[in-house]
Amino acid sequence: MKIIIDTDPGQDDAITFFLALASPEIELLGITTVAGNVTVSQTTENALKALDLIGRTDIPVHRGADRPLLAPGVTATHVHGQTGFEGAELPPPSRGATPGHAVDFLIETLMRHPPGDITICAIGPLTNLTLALAKEPALRTRIGRVVLMGGAFSEVGNITCAAEFNFYVDPHAAAMVCESGAPLTVIPLDVTHQLHTSAARLARFRTLGNRIGPIIADWLVFEKRFEANKYGTDGGPLHDPNTVMWLIRPDLYRGREVNLRVETQGALTLGASVVDWWGISGLAPNALFLREVDVEGVYETLFERLARL
Ligand code: BDR
Ligand code: CA
């Protein structure tokens, strides 16, 4: 299965790359970066560093949008640290970004392949994807599926009382992706908040037996200290790797086809997910919205895959 990862690394974004590159079912065609957890210069540098770590300098990394469409731009350095990789800093990257803007890479790659061939794993704000859809409307029929981490139903919000971070940072882009007509799978906080990075699981990462194990453990100790404290849980949520996990093990998740919209005007609710879980609106479903997860299944698969690197 051919995928492109659109991302704002971020420790949990980098773990998503590792899972994809450890999985023979997946062919990673490239990485596109966006401003989100940290600035786009930093997310681009982080993507390059993460690929260096596992010797995959063959994967193109295209730098994308440096700000949301209309919203002022917000980072999550309080969660991920100033660099986005706090917890375990990596050496400077061995190369620069691949020439060409992320939006053009998305368009050229999707248009070169047969319709439906490529899945987009979107694990940051959705700015690049929206710009690509605006520049080349035919992408709607080219994208096989967008699998995104974002939004929430019963878990409501993590950056504001009403909104999840990726939707909040660029709410207009999130709304446009929901309305695009591209097949959509949504991994919301309802799923990710069940997957606690407990002390026992951190110990499993640390002893994976390869170079990345201790780095992943150190990253998660740092990234999750804030959320574990906020939620009072043993470890914090595991967000972005669920996108690739759903592609390789869809049997581990359950959800419902729903209509999903994103609030773009509310003073208190900007970026909120409006999920028609109960079929109240009469609007046609546009997303498979996941809410249940086999927690042990996800972690066992993650340990097994990452140990292959
Ligand atoms: C999302 O926000 C980011 O901080 C994480 O990388 C994830 O993509 C969770 O709300
Ligand atoms: Ca992310």
TrEMBL record:
Single GO molecular function: purine nucleosidase activity
Protein known as: Nucleoside hydrolase
InterPro entries given in the database record: Inosine/uridine_hydrolase_dom (IPR001910), IUNH (IPR023186), Ribo_hydro-like (IPR036452)
GO terms for cellular component: cytosol
Gene3D superfamilies hit by this protein: Ribonucleoside hydrolase-like
Organism: Kozakia baliensis
GO BP, sorted A to Z: purine nucleoside catabolic process
Keyword Hydrolase set for record: yes
Taxonomic classification: Bacteria, Pseudomonadati, Pseudomonadota, Alphaproteobacteria, Acetobacterales
Coiled coil: none
UniProt keyword Ligase present: no
Alphabetized Pfam families for the sequence: IU_nuc_hydro
Protein keywords: Hydrolase
